[in-house]
Design a protein that fits this description.
The structure is a single chain. This protein has 303 residues and is an alpha/beta fold. It has one domain (3-232): TIM Barrel (Alpha-Beta Barrel). 46% of the residues lie in helices and 11% in strands. It contains twelve helices and eight strands. It has helices at 3-9, 30-40, 65-76, 90-102, 120-133, 150-159, 173-183, 200-205, 220-232, 235-253, 259-270, 287-298; strands at residues 14-16, 47-50, 82-86, 107-110, 137-142, 163-168, 188-191, 211-212. Helix 6 (150-159) links the parallel strand 5 (137-142) and strand 6. Helix 2 (30-40) runs parallel beside helix 3, helix 4 runs parallel beside helix 5 (120-133) and helix 11 packs across helix 12. The two termini are 31 Å apart. The model has no long low-confidence stretch (mean pLDDT 97). The structure holds 2,3-dihydroxy-5-OXO-hexanedioate. Residues 17, 52-54, 169, 192-196, 212-214, 260 line the site of 2,3-dihydroxy-5-OXO-hexanedioate. 2,3-dihydroxy-5-OXO-hexanedioate binds next to loops. It is an enzyme of class 4 (lyase).
């Protein structure tokens, strides 16, 4: 897929980050992952992101990363574009980006580099090296220690024609709007904070109508309906779902660090599409938390 084709695909609709399937021994379960993507690809997401945050990229072994990307690309070929997450330092990120491109990924999402703070210039060099290493489209992701400003992004966009997207995982509206106004239609823009639905309406107002939904992993019909309600300005439906599902959902999610991913895996399990346990350093939901989540999911009706 050409970078501009990917930019077009990411400029509308709903995105998602499938969880990654691990078996009881904690090994990557390609069969389960393929079934998951076959199921999710029928709900009309504009793109699916393999090995993203919700996909536990940070816990994948470098030897199993290509298996995850290959499974996603082969399963979704011809139905929905697969964007592959890459991360860590520049050398590892470039190696992963080249692997993902060779395996047929439609694009690359640059997850934050690891641990250290870094200057805008250094992060720009990091992103530019990744862009230069592939021909497919690249999306830069402000999150954690990666916090690029509008002027840095403008220089990167001039230097890297295949840099076609910006994803926000920080939630600083002044920064987001400054980037959106400075970059105009040069990028496709995506919201992607934990439980993106909370930010969907204000981000749409800021000129970012597209976001990635983690809950799409277990309530895809509701996730699509929520996105359609935001898009239509149906505030009654948006507020009703925020009050009845997302607020109590967030109350569970906020109980322990890392639950933003663990709760999604628990939800998938509760709807019969289990993906196995999370890998450390994450922990799975406690039994009472699973029960509370199950009640919330039941209240939404069939998916
Ligand atoms: O790796 C990531 O950024 C994500 O998984 C983003 C999530 O989809 C986030 O938007 C969410 O939790 O709804």
């Amino acid at each position: 897929m050409q970078p501009d084709e990917l930019k077009h695909a990411l400029s509308s609709g709903l995105l998602s980050f499938p969880v990654t399937d691990f078996d009881a021994a904690g090994e990557f379960d390609a069969t389960g992952y393929r079934r998951r993507l076959e199921w999710l690809s029928t709900y009309g997401a504009s793109a699916l992101f393999a090995a993203g945050g919700t996909g536990e990229f940070f816990s994948l072994d470098l030897d199993e990363y290509p298996e995850v990307v290959r499974t996603a690309v082969d399963t979704c070929r011809g139905s929905v574009p697969i964007v592959a997450g890459v991360g860590y330092g520049t050398r590892i990120a470039v190696r992963l980006a080249r692997q993902a491109e060779e395996l047929g990924a439609a694009g690359i999402l640059v997850l934050p580099h690891y641990l250290t703070e870094a200057d805008q210039e250094g992060i720009a060099r990091h992103v530019a090296a990744i862009c230069r290493s592939v021909r497919i489209g690249v999306i830069v992701y402000n999150r954690g220690v990666c916090r690029l400003g509008p002027e840095t992004l403008a220089r990167l966009a001039d230097e890297c024609p295949n840099l076609i997207g910006f994803k926000d995982g920080i939630g600083d509206l002044e920064l987001l709007i400054s980037i959106r106004r400075r970059m105009g239609d040069r990028f496709a823009y995506m919201g992607g904070l934990p439980t993106a639905e909370f930010f969907a309406a204000p981000y749409r107002a800021a000129g970012v109508p597209v976001y990635s939904s983690a809950v799409f992993n277990f309530i895809p019909r509701t996730a699509m309906a929520f996105h359609q309600a935001v898009s239509a300005g149906d505030t009654d439906t948006v507020n009703s779902l925020l009050d009845s599902f997302f607020m109590p959902y967030a109350a569970i999610r906020n109980r322990r660090p890392g639950y933003a991913v663990s709760i999604v895996k628990a939800g998938a399990d509760l709807v019969g599409h289990g993906a196995g346990p999370v890998r450390s350093p994450l922990v799975d939901l406690r039994p009472d938390e699973r029960t509370a989540l199950g009640v919330l999911i039941e209240s939404l009706g069939p998916q």
